[in-house]
Amino acid sequence: MTIYTTNGRAPVVRVPVGNVRVADPLTALERQMSRLFEDYKVPETGVPAHRLGATDITENAADYVVATEVPGCAESDIKLSTANGVLSIRGEKKKPEVEGPVKQHLAGRQFAAFEEAFTLPDDVDVEKISAFLKNGVLSVTLPKKAESKPAERHIAINAG
């Protein structure tokens, strides 16, 4: 290691590449976790941005399927709609009502409204979209439109 002084400024330390030390692993993990949680906050307010749970979007020959986790939600808590080529999923995970005084020892679950929007591909038949909720997973099926084949037309050739 070599230290260089630069006219009253902080010294510059040159460390050979093979001798670089990694910071304390727990400190590095703590920084990564802090950054992870900061990613889920709305910058202006600092309030968590409530989004849907983990979501998978798959496609096969007949349709697209959007499967998303919505644990603790009933069918009546979720609203689906389409407008201008966008599928919107809105809902609310409601806090259960408790009777009488309760002493809470740990509060780790979140209860809030959520909303997510997905742009629909052009080949989705909006009139045939269906959805079902099972075991905390909402599955929205987006059927593809039947391919329209141009009708074959024979054109007669007239003699000149």
Which descriptors apply to this entry?
mainly beta; 160 residues; 1 helix; 34% strand; three-stranded antiparallel sheet; 9% helix; four-stranded antiparallel sheet
Q: What is the approximate shape? A: elongated
What about the largest sheet? 4 strands, antiparallel
Query: Helices and strands, in N-to-C order?
Result: EEHEEEEEEE
Percent of sequence in beta strands: 25-35%
* Helix percentage range: under 10%
How many E-type strands? Answer: 9
Strand order of the largest sheet: 3-4-9-8
> What's the N-to-C terminus distance?
95 Å
Report on the structure:
The protein is mainly beta and 160 residues long. Helix content is 9%, strand content 34%. The protein is built from 1 helix and 9 strands. It has one helix spanning 25-38; strands at 2-6, 9-14, 55-59, 63-69, 78-83, 86-92, 113-119, 130-134, 137-143. Strands 3-4-9-8 form a 4-stranded antiparallel β-sheet, with no helix packed on it. Strands 5-6-7 form a 3-stranded antiparallel β-sheet, with no helix packed on it. It has a two-stranded antiparallel sheet with strand order 1-2. Strand 3 (55-59) and strand 4 form a beta hairpin. The longest helix is centred in the first third of the chain and has 14 residues, at 25-38. The radius of gyration is 28 Å and the shape is elongated.
